[in-house]
Amino acid sequence: MGRVRSMLAALVGVAVVAGGCGTTPANGGDEGRPMVVRLYGSDANMTNSLADKLKDAPAILSGMVGTAPLLELPASFKERLRGVDPSLADYGYAAEAYDAVLLAGLAAESARSTDAPAIAKYMVGASTSGTVCDDAAACLALARAGKDFAYRGVSMRRSGFTDAGEPSSASYGALHFSRSNTVNDNLTEYIGAGDPASASAEPPPPYTAYPTGNAKKRIAALKVGGLMPHTGRLAFRSAPRFAGARLAVADLNAAGGVIDQPVEWVDGDDGTDEKVAAATVDRFVGLGVQVIIGASSSSVTKAMIPKVAAANRILISPSSTSDELSTVADNGLFFRTAPPDTLQARALADVIMRDGPHRVTIVAREDAYGLGLQKNVKADLLTAGMTDAAVDLVSYPTTTEDYAGIAARVRQDAPDGVLILGYDETALIVKALAARKVGTAESLGG
User: What gap in Å lies between CA 120 and CA 100, rounded to an integer?
Assistant: First the structure.
């Protein structure tokens, strides 16, 4: 079982990876000598799926530690997810995708409408105001009765949305890779971040009577579209998100649907690419989809917000975490169940500072996710006491194949901690580091 820790206690106790081999001098020293570092990751690469890309490099991730938005998921929820997709290797962002769909359905029931702008007006209030409920049946019953409710489901147990329509607090897991290049669940710790008091205090709009007669007949069924990657750089992480979203649709329908009609799931692909995502959004609009779940990456989500808002549709991302998204003009139609990276940065900085490193290199992909999280982690490391000169920032274009160059730069920096903020290319970065004999004590055999 994982252990629960508060954010304030994160600087105390729980040793992570400690160096066991010799290290090089500060200038990088002898290229043939192993350089032991503590290796860190974040939500996009702390996944069992990386093992598939590292079959020729056993134990190369051993000792790597990182964070991801994560609650200690109930075994029953995991079992139900596997009922949707038996092939699931992990559950990353499955809870956030589930809650995104459920909140949209509950807001539509509250609005007595499946029109997206009407639904949007009830999204925040469905998570903050009134009687607490934690499943589709209980919350729908309250909405149908015209009673205020606060959904406290799988990923949103701690608190509701802020006025900006994003989580006011979150739980993060501190995850540890084992020698099998997979996460050892027995070592997972849970760290709280954020402030539940920052949740919106605005009450939802008043309930109205349900339409009757021809007006009720004209209400279209709620259609939910999945704008998440079946293809592209984040496809390796998407299976849990699709499973979570589809499970929520099933739960809403098992509870009687929304406004007496079954919710419809429309599958789609964001391709981890703006052009692919835009084409999918156009298709969704043509099919009458009112609520779009996605995109997965922050950069694609940022590009899609204006397009979706112009079409008067709702966009809810279960996994886009860039801080930039909090202020993008959205006509009140963008929400996310994934917490912003200001919260993850604090959790990451605390995990790193436990080890007391003297120098840290932060390697980040050049997009809204990587650069934004890189900036925030550095700021939190400086606040925690590190000097500006001790934190080196390295970035790489999302199209690069020069991971050897990144490894050479890290070797030259001679840090004792390396944080990688990347997608599936993390496997190639770690391999490039290993080729230069840079790695954790475990992976170097020390």
Answer: 12
Task: Give the separation between CA 352 and CA 361, rounded to whole angstroms.
Answer: 11
What is the model's pLDDT at position 14?
31
> Do the strands 223-228 and 189-194 form a parallel or antiparallel pair, or are they unpaired?
unpaired
Give the tens place of pLDDT for each residue, 364-421.
Answer: 999 999 999 999 999 999 999 999 999 999 999 999 988 999 999 999 999 999 999 9
Query: How many CB atoms lie under 10 A from the CB of residue 21?
Result: 16
Q: What type of residue is 258?
A: V
Contact 12, 356 (CB under 8 A): no
Residue 391, CA atoms < 13 Å, CB-side half-sphere: 21
CA distance 3 to 165: 29
Q: Which of 126, 163, 125, 116 is nearest to 333 (CA)?
A: 116
- CATH for 279: 3.40.50.2300
pLDDT digits (tens, 9 = 90+) for 144-194: 999 999 999 999 999 999 999 999 999 899 999 999 999 999 999 988 888
HSE (side-chain half, CA atoms, 13 Å) at 24: 23
Dihedral sign for Cα 297, 301, 302, 304, please.
positive
Q: What angle do CA 180, 98, 275 make, to 5 degrees?
A: 85
Complete DSSP assignment for 364-394: EESSHHHHHHHHHHHHHHHHTT--GGGEEEE
Q: Which residues pair with 39 in a beta bridge?
A: 418
The pTM score is 0.83
Closest among 134, 127, 136, 125 to 169, alpha carbons compared: 127
- CB under 8 Å to 402, separation ≥6 — which residues? 396
Q: Is residue 79 a part of any domain in this protein?
A: no
Residues 13 and 119 in one domain: no
> How much is the pLDDT for 319?
95
Rg (CA), the chain: 22
Q: Looking at the structure, do residues 287 and 424 belong to the same domain, yes or no?
A: no
User: Could you report the per-residue pLDDT of 29-60, keeping only the tens digit for each?
Assistant: 556 789 999 999 999 999 998 999 999 999 99
